[in-house]
Design brief:
3 domains; 33 strands; TIM Barrel; 21 helices; Spore Coat Polysaccharide Biosynthesis Protein SpsA, Chain A; eight-stranded parallel beta barrel; Ribosomal Protein S8, Chain: A, domain 1; alpha/beta; 711 residues
Length: 711
């Protein structure tokens, strides 16, 4: 039960890949503030009012702090018109797997703050942690850490469902993505414009169908100079705008801040100095935050929707099309409906062009729409979709940026509380895009597919033999075979309603299987014998790209890579760790059933299937062993300021060898493996954790560690 409720207050909400405040879309324009010394709390009110007023004048609409807020701070922010994105000051940099009191303390902090202040109108959301150290994530296990973060998010949503929750990760743990976070938040410090631009494209795919927020970006003027800091913020802010990030947070407002209880004196990331004197970076921030976005010129886009018996769906679809921004013409193709679809469109939407056909199939209907279209670009969606207001604009931008011949975007399922709809949304087999890299696609679903009229004519349009499904797969493959390029616009999204229940979903998957049998005949080189399509790219289903127990994580040698990515062996569902286990099992059962239905229909009538059905089923017994190598874990605390690199280098000189970039340990020697992790805390002692396998006696290793401490 929620502790706090709100009714008519202005609240930030997720709107697909963006945020919405009341009835208008808003970009989070934020700066970080603090943390400050504990004994400065009594001095904050005067400084906060001055700082917050200056922030608002520069175009900021929110601030990010690293502790839970006080009422004084929230009141000051509200008076200035700023939203507050708060953090929780808890020990997420230590081994909370073996010392759960730290996570418990975080839960208590969060619950008490939400009970006391959760209804305050200035409070917009919570970051439940910020950059859990990558070596500690590997030590505790990515699923353990993610589960802890998800538990905090679940607690927060239960107590204050009107607030938004996320975890601020960074490139060293880009694979650590809570499934129940409301948005994807990344701290990114890249000082090369080209690399930063490329990484933003990657982050959209990691975020999936959630908003992408750059939760920290900045430059140290102490080392680089104030002029370079301003120049860097200029191109970074421009790039974040061009990539349509839902949120931008600049680190930081002032050079004055504390870390682990100490004032940081050798870093100067602020857009103002310690005395609040303005740096050139503040003028850059003001320019970009106050800059009004002007719609770029775009060609005429013909939006084509094919429908058959869609009277219950078509009204919502057309109403969204009428809200589109940009130059568009709307064409509805009625493919022989036997209900009142045609009458509804004709009477309710006279400004829409309506084509009535005898039943011809989906591909023929799409071709008919293209035949009467006047646009340079043909944009297709389905009658069970509701398009975003900027859909056409973002598609057109992508065509212009990369000289693409076709462009697609995400299709996002609307939120629902209906059990069967939840299962269908999370089950496999739904429309998904396949990416060759961060920009070019191998496949884009027909519910969100745009193509130039020239490219459409070049390949001869859609193949009429695909009457209900498979048309988009064939279309994309023929585009690629013709040497044409397919791009992907991550923010050009449509809301796509999945099937209403499990029976309808299985029926849909059966249709997909029949379409695959046609595709096998037409494109045999794109299929493996007796299997499904052989894709060169990676599937993206809209869920956050996160590592699980069987994922391969590229840590770098001895886990020292600055950018560590994960790769999973199977497409993941969107259910998070705290979803009831029965729902996990039921969803997977439905997914497996759908996969078998697709395979059966794909192979129906083939000799392979006949042979398969004639063979008796033989179950292979899996052999299990209870033998395990000895595993010892211990910690070592040191008053010296040492990081794990010091111990690693020392042991390398003692005959140990570095592990590979995907191993979950750092060093190896004969049959022995060693993993090292260093906690990050405000404690005056630094604690290091050591995990050893294959060695029963660790006394010699402990001596080396103690000797390394004093070297």
């Amino acid at each position: 039960m929620a502790l706090v409720t709100t009714s008519q207050q202005r609240r930030w909400q997720v709107d697909g890949k963006f945020f919405r405040l009341e009835d208008h879309r808003v970009v989070m324009q934020s700066v970080t503030y603090g943390p400050f010394a504990e004994n400065e709390n009594n001095l904050w009110p005067r400084e906060m009012i001055e700082d917050f007023t200056a922030m608002r004048a520069c175009g900021c609409n929110s601030i990010r702090i690293y502790r839970l807020p006080t009422r004084v701070l929230l009141d000051a922010a509200h008076a200035a018109g700023l939203a507050v994105w708060a953090g929780i000051a808890w020990a997420y940099g230590v081994n909370f797997r073996d010392e759960p009191r730290h996570l418990t303390a975080a839960r208590v902090q969060l619950a008490e703050a939400l009970r006391d202040l959760g209804s305050h109108p200035a409070w917009a959301g919570v970051y439940v942690a910020n950059e859990v150290p990558s070596d500690m994530v590997r030590w505790m296990g990515v699923e353990v850490v993610r589960s802890a973060l998800e538990s905090l998010i679940s607690l927060g949503k239960n107590l204050a469902p009107h607030l938004l929750f996320a975890y601020a990760t960074y490139p060293s743990t880009e694979y650590l993505q809570p499934a129940n976070a409301d948005f994807c938040a990344f701290n990114v410090y890249l000082e090369n414009e080209k690399n930063f631009d490329a990484y933003l494209a990657r982050l959209h795919h990691i975020a999936g169908d959630r908003p992408l927020v750059i939760a920290e970006f900045g430059m140290d003027s102490h080392r680089n100079g104030v002029a370079c800091q301003g120049q860097t913020l200029d191109w970074a802010l421009r790039s974040m705008r061009e990539h349509h990030c839902a949120g931008i947070t600049i680190f930081s407002w002032t050079d004055r801040w504390w870390n682990h209880g100490k004032e940081v004196l050798d870093w100067e990331f602020g857009v103002t100095d310690r005395e609040r004197n303005v740096k050139p970076a503040l003028s850059v921030l003001r320019h970009h935050f106050l800059l009004e976005k002007v719609l770029p010129p775009s060609p005429l886009v013909s939006v084509i929707v094919c429908t058959r018996n869609g009277s219950t769906r078509i009204v919502a679809c057309i109403e969204s099309l009428l809200r589109l921004r940009g130059k568009v013409e709307l064409i509805i193709v009625n493919d022989g409906s036997t209900d009142d679809t045609a009458l509804l469109v004709h009477t309710m939407f006279p400004q829409v062009r309506l084509l009535n056909l005898t039943p011809s199939g989906l591909s023929a209907a799409r071709n008919a729409g293209a035949a009467v279209a006047a646009g340079e670009i043909l944009a297709y969606t389905d009658d069970d979709c509701v398009v975003d207001e900027n859909w056409v604009i973002h598609l057109s931008e992508k065509f212009h940026q990369g000289s693409y011949d076709a462009v697609g975007g995400p299709n996002i399922p609307p939120a629902t509380n209906a059990l069967q709809k939840i299962i269908v949304i999370h089950a496999g087999g739904s429309a998904a895009h396949v990416m060759l890299d961060d920009h070019c696609a191998e496949h884009i679903p027909g519910c969100n597919l745009a193509v130039t009229a020239q490219a459409f004519q070049k390949i001869g349009g859609f193949d009429p033999q695909f009457r209900t499904a498979g048309d988009d797969v064939d279309f994309c493959w023929r585009l690629l075979d013709a040497g044409l390029r397919i791009g992907f616009a991550p923010t050009a999204f449509v809301w796509h309603c999945r099937r209403q229940n499990i029976i309808a979903y299985i029926r849909q998957q059966r249709g997909y299987g029949k379409a695959e049998s046609l595709l096998i005949t037409k494109h045999p080189h794109r299929f493996q014998r007796g299997q499904g399509a052989s894709w060169q790219g990676c599937f993206y289903t809209g869920g956050p790209m996160r590592a699980v127990s069987d994922s391969i994580v590229y840590y770098g040698v001895m886990a020292t890579a600055s950018y560590q990515m994960g790769q999973s062996s199977m497409i993941q569902d969107r259910l998070h760790a705290h979803t009831p286990s029965w729902l996990h099992h039921l969803t997977r059962a439905v997914s497996y059933a759908a996969a078998y239905v697709r395979k059966f229909e794909r192979m129906r009538g083939s000799k392979t299937l006949q042979k398969l059905l004639a063979c008796p089923v033989r179950m292979k017994q899996k052999k299990f062993t209870t033998e395990q190598e000895p595993l010892i874990e211990f910690s070592h605390s040191s008053s010296f300021i040492r990081d794990r690199q010091h111990y690693l280098q020392t042991l390398l000189h003692q005959g140990w060898s570095a592990a590979s970039s995907t191993d979950r340990f750092d060093l190896t020697k004969k049959n022995i493996t060693l993993t090292i992790a260093t906690e990050q805390s405000s404690n005056h002692l630094t604690r290091h954790w050591f995990r050893i396998t294959g060695l029963a006696d660790t006394s010699e290793l402990r001596r080396w560690i103690e000797l390394a401490d004093i070297e």
